[in-house]
Amino acid sequence: MKTNDHAPLIAIAMMAARADGSVDDAEQHAIDAVVARTEDPDTIHLAQQVAAGQLPVVDLVSRLSDEEARRAAYDAALAVINADGSANALEQAFLNELRTALGFSDAEVADATRMAGAMAEAPVAEVQTGKPPAGPVDEFILQQAILTGAIEVLPDRLANIAVLPLQLRMVYQIGQRHGQKLDINQAKDLAATFGLGAAAQSLESVAMKLIGGLAGGLLGGLAGGATRIATGAIITFSATYALGHVAEQYYAQGRRLNTADLRALFAQFQDEAKTIYPRVQEQIRGKASTLSLQSLLQGLNKG
């Protein structure tokens, strides 16, 4: 895979994010921000064409240099599409079109497609039948942030599918602690308030694994010259940590915080995460050494 593969790969991931035909304004803004942070004119130009519906997928595929890049394109599309649940009919049609353009048979992508679908179908809100997690909430949130940060260390692009379900499950469980009766859409709405929707998060994660760290990411330049692995882990750790603590305050106060208050708190807890990350990065690496796609799937299915 070469440097000139970066722009078409991100454009294909963008197409995947739009494949269901329902990218809302917040998602589009977040996606645009991810693309802009690449600071690559070719990527920005292709992204504009994708947003305007002017670029056939076959044209993007023709720009890919080798087998590695073509496989990365399919895995990236799978990760983006399955980040918010199983592929619907429109998304499945896009994946079929992409697979054909890439020259892959059904058999060649069967294992990846099956694993992505299994992770996407894992129940997020099964915890409603059990008890809220015991122990201090701060420790619970920290461990969830470490787990999602560790996912970014894994080389497999499909692992990112697990990030949003784990974040949503965390919000759901925190709500339980405060006697809140939630459905999963309420957890999604809270996450989306901070740009943590499936399309934006999965595209950012995929882009990092495709081309290296995007300058700034969700933390506005925190990573500096760090490697892409460290950058991805910092961003996801921080987002999960902040989401958990905002959810704790939101539900503790009976959901009375307005959007401006929630966003201010989110920024505050992101700043706090910046100071914590150096102390937990070894834990994140250690956690990553115990993870695999299969273990992530098992964890999502525990309920």
Structure keywords:
single chain; 303 residues; mainly alpha; TerB-like; 2 domains; 14 helices; 0% strand; globular
Chain-averaged pLDDT: 82
Please indicate the percent range of residues in DSSP E strands (runs of 2 or more): under 5%
Total discrete domains: 2
Quaternary: single chain
Give a short account of the largest sheet: none
What is the helical fraction, as a range of percent? 55-70%
Query: Unreliable segments (pLDDT under 50, ≥5 consecutive)?
Result: 213-229
How many DSSP-defined strands? 0
- Per DSSP, the total helix count is 14
- The helix-strand sequence is HHHHHHHHHHHHHH
Looking at the structure, what is the overall shape?
globular
Query: Structural class given helices, strands, pairing?
Result: mainly alpha
Give the end-to-end Cα distance, rounded to a whole number of Å. 39 Å
User: What Rg is obtained from the alpha carbons, in whole angstroms?
Assistant: 18 Å
Short account of what is shown:
The chain has 14 helices and no strands. It is mainly α and 303 residues long.
Task: Explain what the structure shows.
This protein is globular. The protein folds into 2 domains: 3-121, Orthogonal Bundle (TerB-like), CATH 1.10.3680; 126-301, no CATH class. Helix 5 (67-82) packs antiparallel against helix 11, helix 8 packs antiparallel against helix 12 and helix 11 (198-211) packs antiparallel against helix 12 (228-252). It is built from 14 helices and no strands. The chain is 68% helix and 0% strand. The chain is mainly α.
